Amino acid sequence: MKKLLLLLYVLMAFLQMHAKGEGGGPLDLLKTVGTFFDSLSVKGLDRRYIDAPKKPWQVILRGNINQSDLKLRTTTNEAEEVMPLFVGNLTWEPRIKTDPATYLGFWAGYRGYGFGYSWNVGGDKGRILTFGATGGSYGVNLRIHWFDNDEPEVYIKGNGLNEVTEEGDVIFAPIEFNDKLEIGSPIKTRALFLDGYYLFNKRCSYAAAYDQSVIQKRSSGSLMAGAMYFHSSTEYDNDNNADLIMMMNDIGAFKTDQISAGVGYIYNWVPVKGLLVSAMAIPMVTFYNHYKMYLFNSNLKEMVQEDMKKEGWDKAIETILSMNDKDYKITPAGEESHTSNIRLNFDARLSITYEWNERIFINAFGQFCNFNYKTDNIKGRLNDWYINGSIGIRL
Questions:
Q1: Nearest-angstrom CA–CA distance, 320 and 300
Q2: Residue 50 in contact with residue 203, Cβ under 8 Å?
Q3: Selection from 14, 233, 296, 99 nearest residue 6 by Cα
């Protein structure tokens, strides 16, 4: 907050000078702001271990491989009220697991302050937007990932319809199914990750490992504090997905917000000049875990339940088999909000950087995040990992 106020003060002072004719034009403003960020990059650090490159601008070309694995789980005690093909206990576990996706993009910034954009070239239909602000001993990162999936992997376990005899008797038997399931309309997911870190040892730099805005000259480690905000929005509230919504206890969309904080450790290893290997791990306690579910009814569910009551199993099954997703219609049926108990999540990163000189460098780093949530009738978790490979130049 102090640094932000100082930055605002510098900008206001320059604007006042300019208004009085004492200052220069836009180039002078940029020079003033640049000097401020230059000082932030190595302020308070041990210059024997960490130094700032002479060229302040960075342009980086990135290749990215990532995968998101969202798993939900609902358990219904009276399955026949939801889906007439089952009786008794029913476990329904859709898993929105994308194939490993490939992205290409760029990152550009000044002294660790910049943004990047990547677009999909293989795998899921998605895009990634990133913002970063790093100094020598701190880092703040924002990553937004959009992707679609139209073939979720589904696990079903329960007593399902096995046979209907000529006399009309319905025979059930244990059924277990685990495979991809084609659905009427894609599941759309947006995940936002905002994290920040602070290193207590002034001889170790987060920025040297993860955006190369400073240079780690000697090996050093540090205790570090971290905090993370996670938001996800998953929507499949489309008419064509009425059958999926019915199996999900009428849930057609849900949003999750989590705030976590923890303490971990980072170590920057410099085996030879120009090579940096960095590893960090932070167990995090999620002390705020809130999610909202959006409920929907459908003509499919209404017809199935009505047929069950009036004419029994045969008619209900006939209705399910005769309707296709083009005939489905869903209608909003309210919202539910829940707050989960404190849970443990995890954040881990690994980075390798090599610099030929102060101008050209290559880097590869990966990150793994785990998020969990739970209510009375639904629980889930999201695993998200990605690996970046990049080549950059300082200008």
A1: 8
A2: yes
A3: 14
- Measured CA distances, 213 to 174, 217, 226, 314 (Å): 59, 13, 20, 68
Query: For 103-129, what is each residue's pLDDT tens digit?
Result: 999 999 998 899 999 998 876 678 899
pLDDT tens readout for residues 43-86: 667 889 998 888 999 999 999 998 888 777 776 666 666 566 67
End-to-end CA gap in the chain: 29
> Cα–Cα distance between 36 and 15 in angstroms, integer?
15
Do the Cβ atoms of 242 and 304 come closer than 8 Å?
no
- Give strand pairing partners of 196: 140, 227
Phi, psi of 93 (to 5 degrees): -130, 85
Separation CA 162–CA 317 (nearest Å): 12
Which of the four pLDDT bands, split at 50, 70 and 90, describes residue 144?
very high
What's at 369, amino acid-wise?
C
Checking phi first, is residue 305 left (phi over 0); if not, alpha (psi -120 to 50) or beta? alpha
Ordered DSSP codes for 277-343: EEEEEEEEEEEEEEEEEEEEEEHHHHHHHHHHHHH-HHHHHHHHHH--GGG--EEEEEEEEEEPPPE
Pick from 205-214, 283-292, 303-312, 349-358: least confident: 303-312
**Nearest Cα to Cα of residue 78 among 68, 63, 64, 88:** 88
d(CA 181, CA 161): 19
C-alpha Rg value of the chain to the nearest Å = 27
Both tokens of 95, joined, read 């898993």
Using CA atoms, how far apart are residues 377 and 180, in angstroms rounded to an integer? Answer: 23
For the question of whether the overall pTM of this predicted structure is more than 0.90, the answer is no
Residues 6+ apart with CB under 8 A from 167: none
Give the DSSP H or E segment for 107.
strand 101-110
